[in-house]
Amino acid sequence: MKNKELAQKLTEIAELLGLSSQDNRFHIVAYERAARAIDSLPEAIETIVAEGRLKDIKGIGPRLTERIVEFIASGHINYLDELKRQFPPGLLEIMSLQGVGPKKAKVLFETLHIATVEELHTAATEGKLRSIAGFGEKTEQNILQAIAFKSRFSGRILLHTAQETAQDIVTTLQKNPAVLAMQFAGSLRRSRETVGDIDILCMVEKGNEKSVMEQCIALPLVQKVLAKGDTKISVLSDSGVQIDIRLIEPRSFGAALQYFTGSKEHNVALRGIARDKGLTLNEYGIYSLTDKTIALGGRTEQEIYEAVGMAYIPPVLRENRGEIEAAVHRALPLLVELKDIRGDFHTHSTYSDGEDSIETMAEDARLRGYEWIVITDHSQSLAIAHGLSPETLERKIAEVQAYNKKKTGITVLCGSEVDILADGTLDYPDAVLRQLDFVIASIHTGFKQTEDQITRRIIAAISHPLVDCIGHPTGRLLGEREGYHIDIEKMLACARDHRTAIEINASPSRLDLQDIYCKKAKDMGVKLAIGTDAHSLQQLDYMTLGIAVAQRGWLESPDILNTLNLEDFNNRQKLTREPHGV
Ligand code: DGT
Ligand code: CA
Ligand code: CA
Ligand code: ZN
Predict the structure, then answer these.
(1) Helix (H, G, I), strand (E, B) or coil at 249
(2) Ligand 1 pocket member 191 (CB < 6 A)
(3) Other beta carbons within 10 Å of 225
(4) Where do the structural domains in the chain lie, given as residue ranges?
(5) I need a surface site. Which of 33, 64, 358, 474 has the fewest CB within 10 A?
(6) Measured from the CB, is residue 282 less than 6 Å from ligand 1?
(7) Are 483 and 513 in contact (CB under 8 A)?
(8) What distance in Å separates the CA atoms of residue 413 and residue 481, rounded to the nearest whole number?
(9) Strands of 222-228's sheet, edge to edge?
(10) Which residue, 401, 396, 364, 391, is CA-closest to 377?
(11) Atom of ligand 1 at shortest distance to CA of 264?
(12) Which residue's alpha carbon is at the smallest distance from atom 16 of ligand 1?
C-alpha cells in the first residue's frame, strides 16, 4: 500500500507551494485535503487507481488525478521534483519549526541566504535576525526555543507510528513456525506518547534462532542492519527508526519481557525490593540470593511480581510513580479499558472538515459497540476548517433528529467544537449553544497570548454554563509545537468547581491532556472525556490511544465520561440544556 508515501509527497507539495511568491492558497488547501483523504483511505490507492475510482474521492480533481496516476506508475511526481529544485531542501525543515511558516522561511532565505536549521541557529544566536524587517528580538528568541524543542523531540516518533510499524513486523514474523509468541517491549509496550526505539521480543526455542534472524534481516522495511548477534538484532527502518528484536527462550520469556519493558526507573525500584527479600532479578529469571542456580520464576511476568510479593503491575503504570507501593498494598487502580467505552465525544463530519457523513460515522461507531457518538463540527469563525454558520447548524440539528428517529441502534448527539475567542467569549451566542447536546470549547487562535491571558480565557469558557468540556486543553502538537502557556492547576480547579469536563484528545500528535496531568485531574476530582477528534471513520480507532493516555494517568471507569450509558449521559447534562438527542 503506497497511501502513506503518496500523502507525504502531496503534503510536501503543499508546503513548497507556500514558499512560492504567487498566491497559491487554493492549491495549497487542495493538496492538503487530498493528502489527508488518501492517508485515511481504508484500501490501497493502487487498487483505486487501477479500478478508475479516483474520481469518487471528494476533492480530487483532474490535476491531482494526473499527479496520483503518475506516482502509482513511476513512484515519482515530476511537479514535486520541479518544486524541490526551486528551493533548497533545508527550507522544509525550517518551515517545520514552531512559529516559522513559509512566509518567514522565504524572507530568511532571501535576505540572509539561510537555507538550513544550523544556519538559522547560528544567525539567531549571533543576533542577526533582528535586523530583518518584521523580525525582532522576540522572534529571535522564539526561533531559538523552537529549534531547542525540535532537537529534544528529534529521533523520537509518535506512539501511533511506532505501533503501526511494530505491528507490521509482528504480523510478518508470526508466520514463522519457530516463533512461539511475540510481544512489544520498552516504551512502546508502556504506551509512552513518543517512542525512542522500537523493542520487540520473540519467543523461540534454543536452537531455532537462525531462521528467525534471517527473516528479521529480510523484513521489507529494513534499510540497514546496525548490529547482529545470535539472539539480538538491531536494524534501522526505511523511515529512520531503530528496531531492536530479541529472541528469548520460553523459560526466560517473562523475565526478559519484564526487564526490557522497563522503565529503567521501575526496574531499579523493583530490584531494590527483591534484594530486601533476599532475591535477585535479571533478564533470565528471579533467584534466591543464596542459591542462584534455581530459578523461582521466569516464564511469565506474573511469576516475577508474585515472587517479590506484589500484585501484577500493568506495563502502562511502570514509571516508578507510586505503582510499586500500590502493588505491594494490593491497591493498584482498576484501569479503564476499551470495552468500558460507550461513545466518542469529539468527531467531525462533512458539515465541517471531516471526510465522512454523520450517518457513516454513526454506523461505524455502532459497529464498534458504542451507544452514542457526539458529532462536534467546528464553529463559525474557524473558516479554514469550514466552521458552521448558525443556519447550517440548524440544518445539521434537523438531520441528526431525523437520523435518531430511524432507531438504527446508536444515538447521534449534535455537538460542536466551539472556538474560544481571543477575549474568552464563545463563537456562538447562548441561544445557539443551548440547542446543542454537547459543547466542547477549544482554543485554535491567539497562541501567543501570555499565560495569564490564556488561563483567563480558558477559565471564562469553563465557567460558561453551556460549556460541557474543554478540548485539547494545552494545544500542543507533539514534535511540532509546545502549545500555549497555561496554568494547568488553575484550569483543573476551575473545571472541578464548575463540573466541566477536560478532554483527553486522542489524536496521535495531540494526546492532550497529557498522562501526568490526567492523574492530577483525577486526584482533584475532575472528570475526563476522551475524544478521538476523528476526521474520518478510520480515525475513530484513535480511541485506543486515548485509553492508553487515561491508563497511564491511573484513570478508572468512573473518571471517564465515555463509560456513561445514554441515559446517564442525558441525566448529567446541565439543566440549562433542552434535550433533543433522543
Ligand atoms: P525509549 O526507547 O527511549 O522510548 O525508551 P525505552 O524505555 O524503550 O528504553 P530502551 O529502548 O533503551 O530500553 C528498553 C527497556 O530495557 C528499558 O525500559 C529498560 C531496559 N533496559 C535496557 N537497557 C538497560 C540498562 O542498561 N539498565 C537497565 N536497568 N535497564 C535497561
Ligand atoms: Ca525502546
Ligand atoms: Ca531499545
Ligand atoms: Zn480542535
Answers:
(1) coil
(2) no
(3) 12
(4) 3-152, 157-248, 253-328, 338-576
(5) 33
(6) no
(7) no
(8) 32
(9) 181-185, 198-203, 242-248, 232-237, 222-228
(10) 396
(11) 19
(12) 260
Non-local CB neighbours of 54 within 8 Å, separated by 6+ positions: 48, 60, 65, 68, 69
CATH superfamily of 3-152: DNA polymerase beta, N-terminal domain-like (1.10.150.110)
CA distance 186 to 195: 9
Closest of 42, 36, 26 to residue 6, by C-alpha? 36
Q: What is the pLDDT of residues 22-71, one digit of tens each?
A: 778 888 999 999 998 898 888 889 999 999 999 888 888 889 999 999 99
Spell out the residues 6+ positions from residue 104 whose beta carbon is closer than 8 angstroms to its own: 135
| Count of beta carbons in the 10 Å neighbourhood of residue 193 | 21
Radius of gyration in angstroms for the set of CA atoms belonging to the chain, rounded to a whole number: 26
| Closest protein CA for atom 22 of ligand 1 | 260
Q: What CATH class does 338-576 carry?
A: alpha beta
- Domain 157-248 adopts which CATH fold? Beta Polymerase; domain 2 (3.30.460)
Ligand nearest to the CA of 235: 3
Q: Where are any strands of DSSP class E within 138-205?
A: 157-158, 181-185, 194-195, 198-203
CA of 473 to the centre of ligand 4 (A): 10
Q: pLDDT tens-digit profile of 419-477?
A: 999 999 999 999 999 999 999 999 999 998 999 999 999 999 999 999 999 999 999 99
Band (573; pLDDT cuts 50, 70, 90): low
H or E stretch at 267: helix 264-276
Please, are residues 187 and 196 in contact by the beta-carbon 8 Å criterion? Answer: yes
Contacts of 407 (CB under 8 A, 6+ apart): none
Ligand 1 and 411: CB distance under 6 A: no
Q: Which CATH class is domain 253-328?
A: alpha beta
Provide the 8-state DSSP code for 116. Answer: S
Residue whose C-alpha is closest to residue 115's, from 139, 140, 94:
94
Query: Dihedrals φ, ψ of 101, to 5°?
Result: -95, -175
For residue 415, give the C-alpha cell: 455537538
Tracing cell 463563537 back to the chain, one arrives at 427
H/E stretch holding 343 = strand 343-344
Contact residues for 511 (Cβ-Cβ < 8 A; gap 6+): 159, 193, 478, 504, 505, 545, 549
Asked whether residue 163 carries a pLDDT value surpassing 90, the answer given is yes
* Cα angle 408, 411, 414; round to 5: 130
Determine if ligand 1 sits within 6 Å of the CB of residue 263: yes
